[in-house]
Description:
eight-stranded mixed β-sheet; mainly beta
Amino acid sequence: xxxxxxxxxxxxxxxxxxxxxxxxxxxxxxxxxxxxxxxxxxxxxxxxxxxxxxxxxxxxxxxxxxxxxxxxxxxxxxxxxxxxxxxxxxxxxxxxxxxxxxxxxxxxxxxxxxxxxxxxxxxxxxxxxxxxxxxxxxxxxxxxxxxxxxxxxxxxxxxxxxxxxxxxxxxxxxxxxxxxxxxxxxxxxxxxxxxxxxxxxxxxxxxxxxxxxxxxxxxxxxxxxxxxxxxxxxxxxxxxxxxxxxxxxxxxxxxxxxxxxxxxxxxxxxxxxxxxxxxxxxxxxxxxxxxxxxxxxxxxxxxxxxxxxxxxxxxxxxxxxxxxxxxxxxxxxxxxxxxxxxxxxxxxxxxxxxxxxxxxxxxxxx
Length: 366
């Protein structure tokens, strides 16, 4: 029958078939797999394995997506970005573990639980904003996320498992909110670029090795609730200079500061119970004179405040003789005051960057 079809027509058919083949996608798009329990959906993975950018929707077949199952996307090494819908409340154990190419994660605003090892071994992860409303961070949840640079634990977090940020070697800044009462064993062990810490007012206990081998850590400020520092809590913190307390001395193990040979423990002059040396480290009251030091401030920018990803754009170094000062950034001028009760703001530096009124800025100390 083909003999009766003109050759020109056959050639046209062949060309059209070839064009259709060339138009086919190179990779098959991953389809989410899931289970339904009642009226709620749990994402269990994808087929084939997810790669590139992954968006978990708020609904599937008009049912709410509320959770990511254990091991759902574990080992998806080509996955680079993840965005979770606002209906999701929990991320299961090891859900994204060893997604080595994962760079950014945008957690939905209603996530309340991040499971054990959820993002462990995601070595390329540079940014994830922990939402207000999160309650629990599991054991080793972000362990080995060596590209993560800053972490802010909101006041809503009341539970954080051991080794949660173990070996996050790119981490430079940690802010711990007022919800946590203890920092688990090895939570920040081997965070080698971490330079300073500020604890929420309710933190009472640092468990064993909580900050061991944080070799760049220079200063630590505790709130008024601290009662216990565990074994090796600051072991190997070779750059540590000042540890500041607001009350009588906590219970300290003999090896709490092993290897932190330059650290001095500072206390308010009216705080009872202090002696000249604790756990092998000298003590001094806060009124004692101290050489001038440099406060390093970083100006950071974010596109939004809902799930902000702060990016440093400028730094400045300011000489100060005070151990604790307050700074603000206003109209391209950095100002300082020794107190917030009756602040006397004085300019100390000028930033000449062109600021975008549509973006958000913050000033952070290192």
